[in-house]
Amino acid sequence: MAKYIGPKTKIARKFGEAIYGPDKVLSKKNYPPGQHGNSRKKKTSEYGIQLREKQKAKYTYGVLERQFRNLFEKASRSKGITGEVLLQLLESRLDNVVFRLGIAPSRAAARQLVSHQHIVVDGNVVNISSYSVKPGQIVGVRERSKSMEVVTGSLAGFNHSKYPWIEWEQSVLRGKLLHLPERSDIPENIKEQLIVELYSK
User: Fold this and answer.
1) Residues 6+ apart with CB under 8 A from 152
2) What is the spatial distance between Cα 53 and Cα 194, in angstroms, rounded to a whole number?
3) What is the pTM of this model?
4) Mapping DSSP to helix (H, G, I), strand (E, B) and coil, where does residue 59 land?
5) The listed CATH number (3.40.50.2300, 3.40.50.920, 3.10.290.10, 1.10.3720.10) that belongs to domain 99-179
């Protein structure tokens, strides 16, 4: 499956946010990259603002355009507020659930754990990052992978209580998706209504 493998700091500087986690360069250069990044004063159009928000969501969750559009179309057919449902669909992706459980330090690392068959869902190995985890399903670390440094290092001191929609069992390194998160529980700084407006044109 294709994925973005370019410079992450450049993307973070483009949006002015640490969308891939703490970034030392971003803290020093909180302006767009490029020769004129610090002096650019160009006014962004309404379409540009909406497009920027969609791109930020795609980069944040590590989803490419076709996947993102498919998720949006699924959200638009579902009951509820389209923008919120879209974020719930993104949050229920297996790679994101692994990240939220603290098993991996980033979504990119979570995708790698999934693709390398270190993650199980209801006891069965699943190596598809886009797999949609359903409420009630249990996501955990494969038995032979529990001592991996990336896993133990990520879980050390991780605060699971900050995500009320998941339940964690430290003794067996697994967690349950209790329910889909409410919008107020999703910490990402994404204005999902702008994405809905963009696709509605």
Assistant:
1) none
2) 7
3) 0.82
4) helix
5) 3.10.290.10
**Residues whose CB falls within 8 Å of the CB of residue 31, separated by 6 or more in sequence, listed in order:** 13, 16, 37, 38, 40
Q: Which residues contact 140 (CB under 8 A, 6 or more apart)?
A: 119, 120, 172, 173, 174, 175
Give the fold, CATH level 3, of 8-89+191-199: Ribosomal Protein S4 Delta 41; Chain A, domain 1 (1.10.1050)
174-177, strands of its sheet edge to edge: 124-125, 119-121, 138-141, 174-177, 166-169
**For every one of its 201 residues, what pLDDT tens digit does the chain have, with 9 covering 90 and above?**
455 555 666 666 666 666 666 655 555 555 566 655 556 566 789 999 999 999 999 999 999 999 999 999 999 999 999 999 999 999 999 999 999 999 999 999 999 999 999 999 999 999 999 999 999 999 999 999 999 999 999 999 899 999 999 999 999 999 999 999 999 999 999 999 999 999 998
Q: How far apart are CA 92 and CA 103, in angstroms?
A: 15
